[in-house]
Amino acid sequence: MPAPESLLLDSDLSPHPALDAAWWRQAVVYQVYPRSFADSDGDGLGDIPGVTSRVGYLAELGIDAIWLSPFYPSALADGGYDVDDYRDVAPELGTLTDFDALVGAAHAVGIKIIVDIVPNHSSNRHAWFTEALASAPGSAARARYVFRDGTGPDGSLPPSDWTSHFGGPAWTRLVDADGNPEQWYLHLFAPEQPDFDWSNPEVHEEFLTTLRFWADRGVDGYRVDVAHALAKDLSEPLRSKPETPGELPLDGSDPLFDRDEVHEIYAEWRAVFDEYDPPRTAVAEAFSAPERRALYARPTGLGQAFNFDLLKADFDAAQFREVVEFCLAQAATVGSSSTWVLSNHDVVRHASRYGLPAGTDLDDWLLKDGLETLLDEEQGLRRARAAALFMFALPGSAYLYQGEELGLQEVADLPASVLQDPIWLRTLNTKKGRDGARVPLPWTAEGQTYGFGSGASWLPQPAAWSRTAVDRQAGVEGSTLELYRHALRIRHELQTEETLGWVETGRADVVHFVRPNGWHCVTNFGAEPYALPDGVVRVASAPVEGGRLPGESSAWLTA
Ligand code: NOJ
C-alpha cells in the first residue's frame, strides 16, 4: 500500500481527557427532528415517546448520540426554534416524564442525548415577552429584550436598517391596547422570535438555570443555536450592518454577529458544564469568518463548533480535500476535533443536492417544485453514499440528519398549501423554505403514513417513500441503511486516532487518505473506475469488481 504523503499531527494538544468524557470528539451524532421522526399517538406529529420507541433502531444503526431539535412548548412559528418555555416539553410531544424515559432508554444502550438550546431569541409567547409587552417602555421587563423607539419624525421608521434572516425588517412595531403605535422590538428571525438582550445579567442567569435543568435530567450535551449572535453592539446610534455580503469581518467588529464578547457568555456556560461528571459538552452553530470558528470550540468555551464546509462543497475531489485539511487544522488550533455535516433540517437533503447540476439555485429549484431542473436521483444517491463513507472515515464527529441513512431525497414538490416554514411567507412566497427536508420518515412500505404514525402526517410524504422505508432496506444487502449500519460498525472499531495522512493517487478526481492504524478511505469523484491499492475492502458504497472502484463511490480498506 502506498505510504502516506503527510500526517496531520495534533502533537501540541493537551492530553485527551478520560475516554468517556471525550466521547464527543469522535462521535456519530444523529439529529432527530422530533415532529418528523415517529408519531406514537396518531396525531400526525412525531413525539418524544416516538423517539423512545425507536431507540433500538438507532442503537442498531450504530450512533453514539441523539441530538434532539427543539421539543419545547412552541407555537411553531419557526419549527420549534421559537421557544415558549425552555424547561418543559411541548404537550403535543409528551411530558418531562416521557423525556426522562427517553434519556433512560438511550443511556441503557450507550447512546448520549444532546438537546438544542436556543439562546438568541425566545418566542413571543414566552412569559418574559408577555410581561415585557404589558410593561412600560424603559421597564426592567423590557430590558430583557431589545426594545427601541422608532426613528423619523413620528417614530414610524424602524430603529435601524437591520434585516431578518427570513426576509423583511428585523424590527416589528408594537401597538398598545388602545391601538396606538408604540416601541419596536428586534427579531433577527421571525417576528414571533424576539431577541434577548444579552447585556442583561438576568438573561445570563436564566440560561444557566436552563443548562443545569437539562444536565440534572441527565442530558450529555447541548447544540447551541445561532451561537454567534448573542452579543450585540446596541450602543446608540445603532450601527448599520457593514456592506459585507460575503464573510463576516475578521476582527469581530460586526454589530450583530461573531463579536468577541460572545465568548464571555460561553466561558460562563463552560463553568456550568464542568460542574458535572463527566462535563457536559456543547457544539456551536456559529457563522463567522472561517478563521474565527475555532474560537467557539475552545475548551474554555463550547468545546466544538459545527462547520458546514462539507455541506456547502460540491461533490468534487479538490473541494472535499481542501475542506478537510482546513477544518482539521482549524479545530487543532484550539485542541478541539472537527465536525462534519452533509445535511440537516435547514438545507436541501444531500442526496438531492448531489443529483442536481453543480451551481443549481436550490431556492429556485424548490420554487419550481423540482420540475424545471431535472434531478438525477440515482446519481444523487450514488454520490451521497460515497460522501457518507468519506465523512465517516474522517477524524472528528459526524452529524447525521434523520433519513439520510435511508438515502431520502428532498421533497421538492410540497404544495404551497402545506408549507409551514416562515421563510415562505416572509419572502412573500419567493422561497419555499426548508419543509422539504422535514417530511416525516417512512418506517414501513405499507400503511397510511409509511409507519410514521396512525394519523395523517403533518407534511405529506411522497409515494416513492414506500420504496425507501426502513423495513424495505433493513437486512437488504447493498441498501443505504445497511451501508450505514455496516460502516458505523467498522468505524467503531477503527476510529481510534485523530489524525490522517493523504496518499497520492495520480488522479485529480480521486482522494485517498489513511489513518495511522491503517484504515484507508478512497473516494472516486470521477466517472472512470480507479484501481484500488492492495488491501481488504471492508465496505464500499458501490460494488468493487476486480479491485476497481467504480465512479462516484468510496471504499474502505485495511491490511
Ligand atoms: C438555526 C436553526 O437550525 C434554524 O432551524 C432556525 O430557524 C434558526 N437557527 C433560528 O433559531
UniProtKB/TrEMBL annotation:
Glycosyl hydrolase family 13 catalytic domain ranges (all copies): 31-438
Keyword Hydrolase: yes
Keywords: Glycosidase, Hydrolase
Domain of life of the organism encoding this protein: Bacteria
Any single Pfam family the record assigns to this protein: Alpha-amylase
Cross-referenced Gene3D superfamilies: Glycosidases (3.20.20.80), Oligo-1,6-glucosidase, Domain 2 (3.90.400.10)
GO BP, sorted A to Z: oligosaccharide catabolic process
InterPro entries cross-referenced by the UniProt entry: GH, GH13_cat_dom, O16G_dom_2
Molecular function per GO: alpha-1,4-glucosidase activity; alpha-amylase activity
EC number from the UniProt entry: 3.2.1.20
Protein name (record): Alpha-glucosidase
Organism: Microlunatus antarcticus
Native organism taxonomy: Bacteria, Bacillati, Actinomycetota, Actinomycetes, Propionibacteriales
